[in-house]
Structure formats: structure tokens, C-alpha cells
Specification:
By secondary structure, the chain is mostly helical. It is built from 6 helices and no strands.
Length: 174
């Protein structure tokens, strides 16, 4: 194992190397060993007296080999989670939701705004509705109902304006 590999799933611990047991340990190496002992105590792997005994021995340790003997039976970092229930095979999961077409949303908004704008957003609703339906057929996105609703409200607004203009022309005598 090289110095930059992770031991037991945790951060690199240089004193866990087998070929360096005789090398002198630094204060930083001792602090890393104490961190491993604290984590083991916090996880219930060591009793209070065992933790205290090992911490004292870590601060007296002079070499990597001594540090390895004190923490070698403990994980040097977080362990992966225990496997939970078996994952559901992909074949049995529902398909992921399809994205909604943006033009369909725009058509619906413009269609709804025809009531507020007096029908002025009817033309954009029709244009966006037709564009959305073409895109939906091509891409398989969701939103066909919104596109149809926008189209219907847009055409109703256009029809209402057409009828109003026709009545105005007929009433003015032309």
C-alpha cells in the first residue's frame, strides 16, 4: 500500500505502512493516532479505560511500529454503511418522470392570461401551443394537455375578437 492510498476506507495514515515500523513518529502522527482512538471510543469500539490507556501509550510512542500496534485493530476512518435491504431492481421501479415541455407551459400561461389581457395573449398562446405539440411529438416530453388548453383558450380569444370586429363592422353599416 502506498503512502497516498486510503487505509480501511479512511484518510491516508502513513504509520499504517508495514515497511516503516522503525521510523520515528512525529507529533502529527501521534495526533492522527489519537483521532483514530477517539473515533473508536465514540463508536463504542473501546471502553473508557482502554481508550485512556491507549492514548497515554500513543503519546509515549516513538516509532510508527508502536503506533500501528496501538491502532492496528481499529478502522482508520469512517466505515461504509452496513448494507440495508436489497435494492429494488431497475425493472420494477417506475419510469423516471419525463420533463414538461417549456412551450406547453408558455401556451397555458398565455391562454390563461387572455382573460386578464382581453384576449391580447391569444395569438402567442396559439403559436406556442402548436410549437409545443410538435416538440412533444418529436421528443416525448410531457405537457400535451397544457398545450391543448393553451391552444383552446388562444383560439377562443381570437374567435371572440374576430366576432367582435365582425359585429362592429356590420353595425357600422359597412
Amino acid at each position: 500500500m502506498s503512502m497516498n492510498q486510503w487505509s480501511a476506507g479512511g484518510p491516508p495514515v502513513p504509520w499504517s505502512q508495514h515497511g516503516v515500523a522503525h521510523m520515528r513518529a512525529s507529533d502529527a502522527d501521534r495526533e492522527r493516532a489519537v483521532d483514530v482512538l477517539r473515533a473508536a471510543y465514540g463508536e463504542g469500539r473501546l471502553s473508557k479505560s482502554e481508550h485512556d490507556h491507549r492514548v497515554g501509550a500513543v503519546y509515549r510512542a516513538a516509532t510508527y511500529g508502536e503506533l500501528v500496534r496501538l491502532v492496528g485493530d481499529l478502522p482508520h476512518g469512517p466505515l461504509p454503511f452496513a448494507p440495508g435491504p436489497a435494492a429494488v431492481p431497475q425493472a420494477f421501479l417506475p419510469p423516471p418522470p419525463r420533463p414538461t415541455n417549456g412551450s406547453a407551459s408558455g401556451a397555458l400561461v398565455c391562454g390563461l392570461l387572455t382573460m386578464v389581457t382581453g384576449g391580447l395573449t391569444g395569438v402567442p398562446a396559439v403559436i406556442l401551443g402548436h410549437k409545443a405539440r410538435a416538440e412533444i411529438r418529436r421528443t416525448g416530453e410531457d405537457g400535451d394537455g397544457m398545450a391543448i388548453a393553451g391552444l383552446a383558450m388562444g383560439w377562443l380569444a381570437i374567435g371572440g375578437w374576430t366576432l367582435l370586429i365582425l359585429l362592429f363592422v356590420l353595425m357600422s353599416g359597412g
